[in-house]
């Protein structure tokens, strides 16, 4: 069982180094088996992101809140930060970026995956956008393979579809058995404790809404295996 500090990304002692990233050992082993199976079918999978610390997530959050990084609507439209209320800004950020302390990437169970081959040149950089994983996109084969086969290796897609919380993320897989235990153990009180002393923008509004934020953006996931006829025909 992860400690409160491990659940909220403030302690990474439960992780091992793996391919320039950090994961739990069981997750790394399952991922290696999955990649080997995909490669046997001509699909190349690589890790874009794995463990992310509280401090790194905090930096992402504050840059977006302060208008130093773009934020988007649930339809992917660029928003003007200065025109949003604090609450609107928080919801817009949460659609695409996790609250520090509440990111699934803190647990060492979740990975953002892609096909590295189209991005071998400096002219073409991965953005982790829906278009890259849609039909005709450079990571479409990866998206289809993960939807069909990830569950065979213990993974699922928590954001396979948009359900009013986090936007659809066809690149995001989660190692179910450990991740679900972590999510169930992450309480609102644990989150509040991690955030109270943090230098996070919008803190007062976040803490006032924390239970609702957790329900909408942390617990509101796709619990099936992520298959979608829309994406893969």
UniProtKB/TrEMBL annotation:
Pfam families: VanY
D-alanyl-D-alanine carboxypeptidase-like core domain location: 20-176
Family annotation (InterPro entries): DD-CPase-like, VanY-like_core_dom, Zn_M74/Hedgehog-like
CDD domains in the cross-refs: DD-carboxypeptidase_like
GO molecular function: carboxypeptidase activity
UniProtKB keywords: Carboxypeptidase, Hydrolase, Protease
GO terms, biological process: proteolysis
Gene3D superfamilies reported for this sequence: 3.30.1380.10
Domain of life: Bacteria
Name of this protein: LD-carboxypeptidase LdcB, LAS superfamily
Originating species: Pseudidiomarina planktonica
